[in-house]
Amino acid sequence: MRIGTLALGGLTLPQLLSRRAQAGATSEPDTTVILFWMWGGPSQFETWDMKPDAPADFRGPLKPISTTVPGMDICEYMPKQAQRAARFSLIRSLHHEMSAHNDGSIEVLTGKTPTVPDPTSQARSEHPDFGMIASWHRGLRVDGMPQYVGLQKAPFMTNPGYLGVSHRAFETGDPSKPGFAPGDLTLATGIDNNRLDHRRSLVRQFDTLRSDLDLLHSLGGVDQFRSAAFTMLTSHKVVDAFDIASESAEVRDRYGRHRWGQSCLLARRLAEAGTAVINIDATAPNDTTKHFSWDDHAGAFHLDHAQRERLPQMDQALCALIDDLYERGMDRKVLLLACGEFGRTPRVTHAPKNFSDQIGLGRDHWPHAFSALISGGGLRMGQVVGETNAKGEYPIRDRVTPQDLLATVYTHLGIDYTQVVKDPAGRPIPILSHGSPIPQLI
After folding, report:
1. Which of 116, 156, 239, 298 is found 20 to 30 A from 186 (Cα to Cα)?
2. At 424, is the pLDDT very low, low, confident or very high (cuts 50, 70, 90)?
3. What does DSSP say about strands 370-376 and 89-94: parallel, antiparallel, or unpaired?
4. Whole-angstrom distance between the N-terminal and C-terminal Cα of the chain?
């Protein structure tokens, strides 16, 4: 983004702001949701729902450790979470029927079941995800802060659809890189007032010329949104929120100087600045690690080696964020959620060779039971919601659907999830057609 235009679907920045203001409501609740999006489908058996008493080909290679909450055992590679269990709750009974990555992601992020499931995982959503709904609902912020941000990128399988392209997430790139600055947003902090005034003058002259030809008055209101565009580009609040380098070395080290740690730190800064939804892409570039996603097929990874790399980084990043939210008094304002699109098969599988030329040990896709971590939001913490059977195959108590999880998220955001949105043909589409907030958390 530079003064004048934004490379997003050919829209100028004033057009983008205009569309957001036309589409969105004016309310602006002071709540935020941070999603640590573990795309690929993290194994519940190697994270938050271990089955140490199951047969060997079900329980897997990793061992559980106790937490500060009795009965809430978790994977041995997450010791920091074990010490902070009173500050989060685990949901062990999530389930749906979509076994392909994109279909499962669409189910979890939008609350809508794909009309035609695509087993090749090429599906794209017909409906917006909850971050896009939040952007539409809250509308334009006068201080220029984006309502929906994707750190480092947003989920690729969801589309704003009938809400309009302006409600896509603003993607930042990797905040752990030296000299980080958001890729599509060049904050013009170095432009002096004389240059800004000169550009304003040129724009006004151009608009005066165009207005003589505007017989239908189609330019009415443009000045308002151009003013907002300049506000976004010169807002000290926007500049400060993205300035992760202003954090002390001690804080940055505490979060971890890796991709996930710095993303969690930037998420906290954006939450403080008022962004509604922040989606952390909890994957990694496949040129930096062979364990780049959570898709633990035996032909790709070895569960032990993969989790030994991933989980300590996740543990450090999430726990630093949880500590900050509680110690800064933000635990009621901010709801933190960590999950993926589904879980993994109860029985482990084997392969003669994986991506690292090792013997592979993994699990395949399993949407019938998976887990999530949830923290803050003024909800009840320090508990386990739901239970799966002895082999982790299916929920047997307090079953939770993605729609229930989203109803909980929408309630925290101050959004009536029963309301409808109209598509371009005027047809009413409910935000959620079913689901209700998870009662154990309320």
Report:
1. 156
2. confident
3. antiparallel
4. 41
> What 3-state class would DSSP assign to 356?
coil
How many residues are listed for the chain in this entry?
Answer: 442
Q: Are 54 and 367 in contact (CB under 8 A)?
A: no
CATH number, residue 26: 3.40.720
Question: Measuring CA to CA, which residue among 352, 362, 348 is closest to residue 298?
Answer: 362
Report yes or no: 340 and 98 within 8 Å, Cβ to Cβ. Answer: no
pLDDT computed for residue 221 by the predictor: 40
Q: What is the pLDDT of residues 48-77, one digit of tens each?
A: 999 999 999 999 999 999 999 999 999 999
The number of beta carbons lying within 10 Å of the beta carbon of residue 350 is 12
Q: What is the DSSP string of 142-171?
A: TT---SEEEES---TT---GGG-GGGSPEE
Whether the pLDDT of residue 18 is over 90: the answer is: no
The answer to whether residues 61 and 384 touch, using CB atoms and an 8 Å cutoff, is: no
pLDDT value of position 15? 54
How far is C-alpha 389 from the geometric centre of its chain's CA atoms?
29
Angle between helices 193-211 and 222-234 (to 10 degrees): 160
Instruction: Give the total number of structural domains in the chain.
Output: 1
Q: What value does the mean pLDDT of the chain take?
A: 87
Q: For the chain, how are helix, strand and coil distributed in percent, rounded to 5? A: 35, 15, 50
Question: Using CA atoms in the order 248, 249, 251, 253, what is the torsion angle rounded to 10 degrees?
Answer: 170
User: Percentage of the chain surpassing pLDDT 90?
Assistant: 74
DSSP class of residue 65 equals E
151 and 172 Cβ atoms separated by less than 8 Å: yes
Q: Is 6 helix (H, G, I), strand (E, B) or coil?
A: strand
* 7 backbone dihedrals φ, ψ, rounded to 5°: -80, 75
Cβ pair 418, 66 in contact under 8 A: no
Check: CB of residue 337 under 8 Å from CB of residue 441: no
Span 222-259, pLDDT tens digits: 444 454 455 555 567 888 999 999 999 999 999 999 99
Range of the domain at 398: 5-441
What residues pair up with 30 in beta bridges, in sequence order? none
3-class state of residue 285 by DSSP: coil
Q: What is the pLDDT of residue 159?
A: 95
